[in-house]
Amino acid sequence: MRRVVAFFDWKADDWRKKAMNLENSTLTSVIPEPRLAEADIRSQQLIKDGKIAYAYRQAGIRQRMKSRFSNEWKDLPMRLLQMENGDARVRIECH
């Protein structure tokens, strides 16, 4: 369970880093005609903005998954110890 929570935390950070790298990237065009190059960069900017939004959305999803599982599992060690007259091994080994 600890690894699942750590994975979601790592993955959220990874998505945030991808978004920040995109935000800091510079757009260029290889088109020599200035007006066409400007249009090309505007088109690239729309795609870049979409990728940034997607990356932040994915980071948010992973962060919410981490929070949800952390919350659901926070009392699990105590509940396991209280099962089967305090011997959690009996209950776990049966499944």
Describe the structure concisely for a colleague.
By secondary structure, the protein is an all-alpha fold.
Describe the structure.
- By secondary structure, this protein is mostly helical.
- It has one domain.
- 80% of the residues lie in helices and 0% in strands.
- The protein has four helices and no strands.
- The chain has helices spanning 2-24, 34-73, 76-82, 88-93.
- Helix 1 (2-24) runs antiparallel to helix 2.
- The protein starts with a helix and ends with a helix.
Describe this protein with a few key phrases:
95 residues, mainly alpha, 80% helix, 0% strand, rod-shaped
The count of strands amounts to 0
How many distinct folded domains?
1
- What is the beta-strand fraction? under 5%
**SS content category:** mainly alpha
The shape, in one word, is rod-shaped
Poorly predicted tracts of residues: none
Mean pLDDT: 89
Order of helices and strands: HHHH
The number of helical segments is 4
Rg over CA atoms, rounded to whole Å, is: 23 Å
Largest sheet: none
Task: Measure the end-to-end span.
Answer: 17 Å
Question: Which helices and strands appear, and what pairs or packs with what?
Answer:
Elements: H1 2-24, H2 34-73, H3 76-82, H4 88-93
Helix pairs in contact: 1-2
